[in-house]
Amino acid sequence: MPKKKELNQNVKLWVEALRSGKYNQCRGSLRTKNRRKYSYCALGVAMKVAETHGVVIEEHHWDRASLPYSVMDWLGLRRDNFHVKLNSHSVIFLNDTSELDFKEIAKQIELHPTVFETPKLNQGER
Predict the structure, then answer these.
(1) How far is CA 13 from CA 16, 38, 55, 107, in A?
(2) Around Cβ 126, how many Cβ atoms within 10 Å?
(3) DSSP string, 40-69
(4) Residue 86 — φ and ψ, nearest 5°?
(5) Contact criterion met (CB below 8 Å) for 86 and 105
(6) Looking at the predicted structure, is the pLDDT value of residue 125 above 60?
(7) Residues 57, 31: contact at Cβ < 8 Å?
(8) φ and ψ at 85, to 5 degrees?
(9) Any idea of the CA torsion for 21, 27, 31, 35, to the nearest 10 degrees?
(10) Bridge partner residues of 25 (DSSP)
(11) 41 and 26 Cβ atoms separated by less than 8 Å
């Protein structure tokens, strides 16, 4: 029987962050700021986690509606999967349209490990 594919280490860090309760959730943008405190969509959490592990995130990347290539590479995503399409829905759809909470989105990510390949950028690389 073939071994079941597991999430790569960087995606595990993202899933852990989604479940941590550390991040407030927003919809419709990667990051919003209210009273000096940021809220993030699920992809914004991926960006923040990547940044804390050495991936350089330029300020203008936060104004986009999708992940920058540096974060895609860190997660092990193909370059054409910038919305992180899992199966029939993307992480953006799950966060913004279905309005799933971060724990439910984390569960969906775990159900689709084949979306993620070996990261092109490992922790601490830029």
Answers:
(1) 5, 19, 14, 13
(2) 8
(3) E-HHHHHHHHHHHTT----GGGGGSSS--H
(4) -90, -55
(5) no
(6) no
(7) no
(8) -75, 120
(9) -80
(10) 40
(11) yes
For the chain, percent helix, then strand, then coil, each to nearest 5?
40, 10, 50
2/14 Cα distance (integer angstroms): 26
Question: What are the backbone angles phi and psi of residue 91, rounded to the nearest 5°?
Answer: -60, -35
Nearest Cα to Cα of residue 85 among 104, 103, 67, 102:
67
Give pTM, 2 decimals: 0.90
Write down how long the chain is: 126
d(CA 39, CA 80): 26
Amino acid in the structure at residue 67: L
> Residue 79: which pLDDT band, with cuts at 50, 70 and 90?
confident
What are the residues whose beta carbons fall under 8 Å from the beta carbon of 115, sequence distance 6 or more?
Answer: 77, 81, 84, 85, 86
Q: What's the whole-number mean pLDDT along residues 16-28? A: 97
Tokens of 38: 């940021």
Domain ranges of the chain: 9-115
